[in-house]
Amino acid sequence: MNILYLSLQDFLSRPFLKFSTLPFLISLVIFALLVYYSYDIFFSYIEDVVSGSFMAWFFSFSIVQFSLAFLSAIGGFFIVVFASVFFTMFIISFLTPYIVKKINQKYYNHSIQKEVNSLEILLKTFKFLLISCVLFAVATFLLIIPFVSIVIYYGVFYYLFHKLLLLDVLSNVLDKNNFDDFYKNSSPLYFKIITLVFFTLSSIPLLGLFLQVFYVIFLTHLSYQKILKLKANNNG
């Protein structure tokens, strides 16, 4: 059966829509408050720094104030969008075992002989975060080259998104042997393409918050069918 069709069908069912709505609302409220207060604090700080100094006259120009507000909004938007996506991913990760279990029972009836060790998952998570921090540091040094640094930042966010999302799903779908075999090599191209599409969708405000459950559902079906070579049979 078509993976996209199955995923949409599952995602639009009542239980999974509930799972999508709750993290969406929590993330939306938290990050709306974060944007509001951080924006206010930032400009209060700028005013305190420049007031009474020789820079005050410079910041009094309308064009400077507009440019500062514009750059702050763009930077804040970029950070908040992706921070909210990763925060939602964190919330959804607690629901992933249930999502995978429901899909497995409904379509695949696959039994896991030996589960993936939790310590191994934590170590891989730490490894991905460490690599991302190094890449972020490189991107920060390249801020003098604006477009290059933006591309690198975007690439780092995608790397982390791809790695954490796959780790979350595969650690629940695969047994230890298949899990270890998968991570011996680079992930297949179709996984990279799919997660890149998901990451691009997540760049759209609010959409990335709401679709996290769909991402998990789709990758669960993809893993069962492409890695474990199972066929989907609707068992009710």
UniProtKB/TrEMBL annotation:
It is found in: Membrane. Its main location: membrane. The chain crosses the membrane at residues 20-37, 49-71, 77-100, 128-161, 189-219. It holds the Pfam family EI24. The keyword Metal-binding does not apply. Keywords: Membrane, Transmembrane, Transmembrane helix. It is a multi-pass membrane protein. This is Putative membrane protein (EI24 domain). It comes from Campylobacter lari (strain RM2100 / D67 / ATCC BAA-1060).
